[in-house]
């Protein structure tokens, strides 16, 4: 039985696995939990990150506006299901004005670490790169330097130092709808200068696991278990109808997390439901937490347990 290393979250939203369900991950029966109209001007609310905060939950939400501009907004919830999202975007302070100058921001991840909440997101700086900031209250965000040179997306921090180093996963990309993508790990002593880059894993050629044949990228912050770091990630297949985004799971070595213990040949969640297949970008399930973006339009919630995921990853290993 795999055990999560971390504190218990007794008020975590939860629904038992429906009887007869054969999946390792199951959707909330009330999905989508956040519609297009999550805040005053939103066209769509998706690819967002959520953490336990005080007596409830807080999140950083991607709300694309009705002029189709991408930005991030704080949101709060008592139960993790009903959300109140700000109408005004995140306010950042502290960084060099050149870094603070905002082009666009999207697809945030949140990693609680050392009593702070670290937010990483895709930050426009002459192309996409990884923005980093920390907050204690989801009101003031202290921005740090961008972690990497452009072009990069899907940056996410591990929730503690490993071997004395902060560690971040990311997926180097291009300026467009990147037709490639592998997962790399970078290390830092101070969350500013990143190096010691290591390849973690890439796409799967051939027919063995085609849902991840075009690109793979890290999802929410890795979860520490006694069997390894549990990483939920996205995998993409290019089809005659465009990209299809599904989710997979990997188990990474606790001390050297660029070493893969196992990763799934089978996906753990795929666009099956109407709200995952119909929207501004059809056929997308994109994990930022297991709160996941659906068809780039609305936000869904899904459940699982660490034990279920570890067992699935080992049983359906590539
Ligand atoms: C990526 C990003 C994601 C999006 C995905 C699918 O390039 O824009 O935010 O979910 O494409 O459209």
Keywords, please?
globular, 3 helices, binds beta-D-mannopyranose, Tachylectin-2, Chain A, mainly beta, 5-stranded mixed sheet, single chain, 5-stranded antiparallel sheet, 22 strands, 318 residues
Q: How many domains, as an integer? A: 1
How helix-rich are the residues, as a percent range? under 10%
Largest sheet: 5 strands, mixed
Per CATH, the superfamily is Glycosyl hydrolase domain, family 43
Q: What is the CATH top level name?
A: Mainly Beta
Report how far apart the termini are.
21 Å
Beta strands, count: 22
Name the beta content range: 35-45%
Strand order of the largest sheet: 6-10-9-8-7
Helix-strand topology string: EEEEEEHEEEEEEEEEEEEEHEEEH
- At the third CATH level, what is the topology name? Tachylectin-2, Chain A
SS element count, helices: 3
Strand and helix layout:
Layout: E1 26-27, E2 42-53, E3 56-65, E4 70-77, E5 84-85, E6 91-93, H1 97-100, E7 105-113, E8 116-124, E9 128-135, E10 140-143, E11 152-157, E12 166-172, E13 183-188, E14 195-201, E15 215-218, E16 223-225, E17 228-239, E18 242-252, E19 260-263, H2 274-277, E20 285-287, E21 291-294, E22 298-303, H3 306-315
Bound molecules: beta-D-mannopyranose (BMA).
């Amino acid at each position: 039985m795999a055990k999560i290393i971390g504190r218990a979250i007794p008020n975590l939203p939860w629904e038992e696995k429906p009887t007869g369900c054969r999946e390792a991950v199951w959707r909330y029966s009330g999905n989508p939990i956040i519609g297009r109209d999550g805040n005053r001007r939103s066209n769509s609310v998706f690819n967002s990150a959520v953490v336990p905060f005080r007596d409830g939950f807080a999140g950083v939400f991607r709300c694309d506006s009705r002029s189709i501009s991408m930005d991030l907004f704080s949101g709060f919830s008592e139960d993790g299901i009903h959300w109140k999202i700000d109408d005004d975007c995140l306010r950042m302070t502290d960084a060099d004005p050149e870094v603070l100058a905002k082009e666009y921001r999207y697809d945030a991840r949140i990693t609680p670490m050392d009593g702070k909440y670290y937010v990483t997101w895709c930050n426009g700086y002459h192309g996409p790169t990884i923005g980093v900031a920390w907050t204690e209250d989801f009101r003031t965000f202290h921005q740090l330097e961008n972690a990497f040179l452009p072009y990069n997306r899907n940056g996410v921090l591990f929730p503690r130092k490993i071997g004395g180093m902060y560690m971040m996963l990311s997926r180097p990309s291009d300026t467009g709808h990147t037709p490639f993508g592998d997962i790399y790990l970078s290390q830092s002593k101070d969350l500013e200068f990143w190096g010691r880059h290591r390849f973690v894993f890439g796409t799967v050629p051939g027919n063995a696991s085609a849902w991840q044949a075009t690109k793979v990228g890290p999802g929410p912050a890795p979860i520490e278990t006694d069997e390894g770091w549990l990483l939920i990630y996205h995998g993409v297949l290019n089809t005659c109808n465009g990209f299809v985004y599904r989710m997979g799971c990997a188990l990474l070595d606790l001390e050297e997390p660029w070493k893969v213990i196992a990763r799934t040949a089978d996906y753990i969640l795929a666009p099956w439901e109407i709200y995952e297949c119909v929207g501004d970008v059809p056929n997308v399930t994109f994990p930022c937490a297991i709160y996941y973006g659906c068809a780039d339009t609305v936000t869904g919630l899904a459940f699982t347990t660490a034990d279920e995921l570890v067992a699935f990853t080992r049983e359906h290993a590539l």
